[in-house]
Amino acid sequence: MEFAHDVAEVQEFEGRHPKQLYLLFFTEMWERFSFYGMKALLLAYMVSQLKFDEPKGYAILGSYSALVYTMPMFGGMLADRFLGYRKAIMFGGILMTIGHLVLAIPQGWSFFYGMAFIICGNGFFKPNISSLVGTLYANNDPRKDSAFSIFYMGINIGAALGGLLCGYVGQRINWHYGFGLAGIFMILGLIVFSIGKKTLKKKGLPLNAAELRKPRFAFITNEHIIYIASLAIIPLVVALFHAYEVMDWIMLVLGTLSVCYILFIAFKLEKIERFQLFAALTMIIFSTLFWSFYEQNSGSLNLFALRNVNMNVLGYNLPGLAVNNFLPPAWVIILSFVFAWLWPWLNKRGQEPSTPMKFAFSFILLGIGFYVFYLACKASTATGLIPLTTFALGYFFIISGELCISPIGLSMVTKLSPKNIVAMMMGIWFFASAIGEFLAGKIGSLMSVPKEVAEAENPVLSLPYYADIISNIGLGSIVIGVILVCFVPFLKRWMHDVK
């Protein structure tokens, strides 16, 4: 009853989405502008400016991306138990702002420290703003998947603008100006949330505000300890960048511990909740494979776009970084309208695919997209340059797949997780992305172009280093999708009445 009352507080008109969804939409939009705008520059900056070998660049990018999506697991737990969603979002946003501005400083030390601040800040920001969206709806509200699709569109408006503008500024004007531009828009996201958070009423407040303010040492409270401990992690993250080989073991240990911890919790629950958590865990594990393929976008496909995509349009040579980082979120913006309409329309007719089936579709569509890239490579061996239109078409299928898993996965976590661990499970959902991002770096390194080939700047020579691996990604993704289709009946049974 209490949860139903809280939900009713923010739903003013039946059938419409609450206005608080749009507050979170715009907050996340500007934060994602900064995050993806900066990420668009990372690999190319390391290879072209810091002169890292490509395998090292992929390894550091994979480590960065893995840590970015690992920290939400801890940020989610701290928000569930202590801070509440709102304080976690504000603290995370402040840390990310500092990180972007540090990256804008043209000094050797600033690169790793800037990324470390962003990693720690994202851990507090990312899971908790998504969890806050989930609190606006009851579990079986048919608008919930639609709401996350709308929210996801906000993410990608920010990502499209960030990838386009920061990619252009970084590649064509100055790399550090590109990083600095990302910081400016992070500040804008914080301002939006600060102004509008009062409309959330009691949503996202700490569970026990008195305990949070309780002094531990002199005037230092539990809240202060969380902030100080978070800042103390930053030098450790920097050390990991210098010893990135250690990340193999860290990801293995954290992945094993996460699965064991969820199973430990599950066996303490009643039967229905236990199997719902099993279903969520299964889909989370599958999602790691999806992200390991999909996240070639910020790695190998960035360099592929620079080297092997014909960016000449009407005599103007488009900047490859900007185009490659604009296309995916641009497709999301367009297709989000379609999917936000499609799921409720199918639901009214009793034909909406189940969440597990949507996950299966995501792999099949992703595989088709990569196979489009591969066919374009095979047809372009003479020039080494695939057409920009075909590159955009491949992304159409890849993003259709993304929209069947990413917003649906966010919604799935809030529906299948016990209420008291939603933020932690959201963190584990993002940790699955972390493992996927880490594996993406490993897969991307298989497409490393030797230094002498890269310096020759001959697309015919570099194309073969991409084509075969892209083909394997496409085929592997389709096979995984078919396997997941076979699991759908079992997962639906475990989910019980949750759609």
- Total beta strand runs: 6
- Could you name the CATH class? Mainly Alpha
- Taking pLDDT < 50 over at least 5 consecutive residues as the criterion, the unreliable ranges are 1-14
For this structure, the CATH topology is Growth Hormone, Chain: A
Count of discrete structural domains: 1
Global morphology = globular
Give the N-to-C terminal Cα separation: 21 Å
What's the helical proportion of residues?
Answer: over 70%
Number of helices: 18
Strand-and-helix sequence, N→C? HHHHHHHEEHHHHEEEHHEHHHHH
Report the radius of gyration as a whole number of Å.
Answer: 22 Å
Under the CATH scheme, the architecture is: Up-down Bundle
Q: Let me know the CATH homologous superfamily.
A: MFS general substrate transporter like domains
What amount of the residues lies in strands? under 5%
Mean pLDDT, nearest integer?
85
The order of strands across the largest sheet is 1-2
In this structure, how is the largest beta sheet organized?
2 strands, antiparallel
**What is the SS-derived class?**
mainly alpha
